Amino acid sequence: MTVLTEAGDLVLLVGEDRKSFIRPLQPGDKLQTHRGEVLYDDLIGLPYGSEIRTHLGHRMFMLAPTTSDLILDLRRQSQIMFPKDLGYAMIKMGIQPGHVVAEAGTGSGGLTLALATLVGADGHVFSYDRRADMQKLARANLRKAGLEARATFKLRDIADGLDETDLDAMFLDVTEPWEYLAPARAALAGGGCLGILVPTINQVQTLVDALYDSRAWFMIEVEETFLRGYKTVPQRIRPEDRMIAHTGYLIFARAVTRLPEAEAETEELEAEDAGAASVESSEQQQR
Ligand SMILES: C[S@@+](CC[C@H](N)C(=O)[O-])C[C@H]1O[C@@H](n2cnc3c(N)ncnc32)[C@H](O)[C@@H]1O
Predict the structure, then answer these.
(1) Which CA distances in Å does 85 have to 88, 193, 197?
(2) Per-residue pLDDT for 67 more than 90?
(3) How many CB atoms lie within 10 A of CB 133?
(4) Domains in the chain, ordered, with CATH?
(5) Is 123 in the pocket of ligand 1 (CB under 6 A)?
(6) What distance in angstroms lies between residue 89's CA and the mean position of ligand 1's atoms?
């Protein structure tokens, strides 16, 4: 289907050198690049995919930006979650239209943008951060993408809890996520998905211990994604020489409520296991 651009549409303008610009088509305004200028009035009403020329004759193409394009183009004041982790996490957590979800912290709004796209007009994102400057930036980033109405920003330390309950999913991208497992569980519906990103294995260790200790989580998983780009020179298609080797570890868990007797059983089993382990270790020491 051919879609024509309209005044105000957000477009991706990419030169042959792959330098790209995401801009709204504001009537009367123009894009200035090192390869010349483009008047937006000349672009309004053209089909997406059109080849255009700067006033110096350089070729560009006009495309609709994807979620990945929008995220990589964000103004940043914090480390953002990158598409390779975001894409997997969103699928893993089953984020879909109509879902009501929360995240902390907002940061520059990378995850907020992905969540707001996926929950659609009927869903909503509640985004918590304790820094006002971060939320100001994230709000501006969401506004530019036309998604501001789908997110509510709350300036708060999540140690003080969330206002929402029965959420479909919650994501923690904070330094010490293990400190906020209780507020996250209180905000999630039974079975709701918790996702967490941490950059170091030390944090993973503390977090996994805390998840098991709290007994409010099931299907605890730790995963990592790797993405390798390829050079697309025809006849010489091969991996890029460099890759981003590490972004962070993804941790997922489902919110559950255990039966009191099941909890007692688990405690008994764990006590038995601990007893067996200590017998085994004293036997080993004696050998
Ligand atoms: C790495 S950034 C989040 C990046 C974001 N996920 C993105 O994709 O743009 C971490 C944010 O968490 C916020 N933060 C850390 N601890 C917090 C807490 N206890 N309550 C609320 N926000 C917190 C910080 O202020 C910071 O803005």
Answers:
(1) 5, 16, 9
(2) yes
(3) 10
(4) 10-65 (3.10.330.20), 68-263 (3.40.50.150)
(5) no
(6) 17
- Statement: residue 27 has pLDDT above 60: yes
In the predicted model, what is the mean pLDDT of residues 227-250?
96
Residue nearest to atom 5 of ligand 1 (CA): 107
Which tokens is 34 given? Answer: 């090192």
- Whose Cα sits closest to atom 18 in ligand 1? 157
Three-state secondary structure of the chain:
CCCECCCCCEEEEEECCCCEEEEECCCCCEEEECCEEEEHHHCCCCECCCEEECCCCCEEEEECCCHHHHHHCCCCCCCCCCHHHHHHHHHHCCCCCCCEEEEECCCCCHHHHHHHHHHCCCCEEEEEECCHHHHHHHHHHHHHCCCHHHEEEEECCHHHCCCCCCEEEEEECCCCHHHHHHHHHHHEEEEEEEEEEECCHHHHHHHHHHHHHHCCEEEEEEECCCCCCEECCCCCCEECCCCCCCCCEEEEEEECCCCHHHHHHHHHHHHHHHHHHHHHHHHHHHC
CA distance 92 to 266: 28
> 70 vs 56, 152, 186, CA distance in Å?
27, 19, 32
> Residues 71-97: what's their mean pLDDT?
96
**132-144 vs 110-119: helix axis angle to the nearest 10?**
50
Ligand 1 atom having least distance to the Cα of 111:
8
